[in-house]
Amino acid sequence: MEFWLTAVLLTFAATLIVLLPLTRNRQRLLPTEKNDLEVYRDQLREVDADLARGMIDKASAEQARVEISRRILGVEKAGRDTPSFGEKARSGRLLAFVAVLAVPLIAWGVYPLFGAPDMPSMPLAARLADSPDRNSVNELVARAEAHLAQNPDDIRGWDVLAPIYLRLGRGADAANAYRSAIRIEGENFSRTLGLGEALIAISGGTVTAEAEAIFTKAAELGPDDIRPQYYLAQGEVQDGKADMAVQRLQAFLDKAPSNAPWRAQVEQMIAGLRGAPAAPKGPTSEEVEAAAALSAEDRQAMIEGMVARLDEGLRENSADIDGWKRLVRSYMILNRRDAALDALKRGMDALEGEQRADLQGFAAGLGLEAESAIK
C-alpha cells in the first residue's frame, strides 16, 4: 500500500509540473496576415499624405491605392482560409494536455502487467549473497571481507583479496592481507613479493628498509624473477648507489634467457643508470647503527647533520632527481615543511621536463604542492 501511495503522489506531482505552464495565458502575438494588413493601411495613409503635399499627382495616387487595395483583399482572403491564431493555440494546448495525461495513464495501465511492486528491497547483505557475477568490484571486496571476518584462517580468501587491495590502491589493507596469509600458511614468492609492493605503496614509492629485506627474501624464493631484483635496484638508486644497482641488474641480465620479454627494459634502465651523474650519498649502514645507539636528542642531531650534507651535495650536483626526492622527504619526516618547500622550489628550478614533473608528482604525494613552493 505504501508503494502505491508513493507512486500516485510522484505521478501527480510530475504531471502537475508539466501541465501548469500550459494553463498560463501567454502574450498574444499578431498573426502574419494581421501585420501585413497594418503595413498596407499605413501605405494608404502615406499615399494620401503625399497627394496632399503635392509630391504625387492624382493619377499616380489612384493607381497606388488600387494596387494596395488589391494586396489587402488578397491578405484578407488568405486569412479567411487559414485558422486563426487563437484556434491554433487552443488546438496545440489541447494536444499537449492529452499527450501529458496519456503518459501516466498508459504507464499505470502497463506496470501491473509487467512490474513487480511487491518485490522487497535488496540490502547489501542480500546482494552479496547473490551470484558473484552480478556484483561490482566493491561488492565483491565487501563479500570477501565479510567472509574473512567469519573465517579469518581461510588462506585462499586472503590470497585472493590481497592483490585486489593492491590494485585498488589500498596499500595498508593489502599489507595486512599478505601478512595474514603469511601468518596462516607461511611465505611463498607471490605473498612475499606482494607484501613488499604493498609497503612501497604505503611509503609513496620509497623502498624502505623493511621492504628491502622483504624483497631480498623474495629474490631467494624466486631467483629467476626480475621483479625483486628491480625493486632492490630501485632502493639502491634511492640510496645513491647507482653503481650497485647496475651491477645487480647486469648480473641478473647475464644469466637471463635471451628471449626474456623484459630484457629490453632492463637494458634501457642499466644504460640510463650508467649515464646518470653520481648521486649525493645518504647515511651509511655504520651511521645508521651508530644512530640507533644514541639518545633521542643526539640521534635527532645526527639525522639533521646527514640531511644537511645531502642538501649541500645537491647544491653542487643539482641534476640528481633522486637526491631532491630524498631531501624533500627527509625534511617532511623531520616535520620541517618550510624547508621541504624550499627544497622543492630549488629542485623545480634545477630540473627540467619530465624530471621536473616527476619531482612535482612526488612532492604532491607527500602533501606538498608545487604552487606553494613557487612564490
List the SSEs and their pairings.
Elements: H1 2-23, H2 32-52, H3 58-81, H4 85-114, H5 124-129, H6 137-150, H7 155-167, H8 171-185, H9 189-202, H10 209-221, H11 226-238, H12 242-255, H13 263-274, H14 285-292, H15 296-316, H16 321-333, H17 337-350, H18 353-365, H19 370-373
Helix pairs in contact: 1-4, 2-3, 6-7, 7-8, 7-9, 8-9, 9-10, 10-11, 11-12, 12-13, 15-16, 16-17, 16-18, 17-18
GO biological process, one term: cytochrome complex assembly
Keywords: Cytochrome c-type biogenesis, Membrane, Repeat, TPR repeat, Transmembrane, Transmembrane helix
Protein name: C-type cytochrome biogenesis protein CcmI
State the end-to-end CA separation.
Answer: 65 Å
* C-alpha geometry: elongated
Report the oligomer: single chain
Sheet of most strands: none
Strand content: under 5%
Radius of gyration in whole Å, from Cα? 41 Å
Mean pLDDT, to the nearest integer, reads: 76
Poorly predicted residue ranges: 122-128, 276-282
How many domains would you count in the coordinates? Answer: 4
How many β-strands, per DSSP? 0
Summed up, the helix count is 19
Helical content, roughly? over 70%
Structural class: mainly alpha
Order of helices and strands: HHHHHHHHHHHHHHHHHHH
GO biological process, one term: cytochrome complex assembly
Subcellular location: Cell envelope
InterPro entries: C-type_cytochrome_biogenesis, Cyt_c_biogenesis_CcmI, TPR-like_helical_dom_sf, TPR_CcmH_CycH
Protein name: C-type cytochrome biogenesis protein CcmI
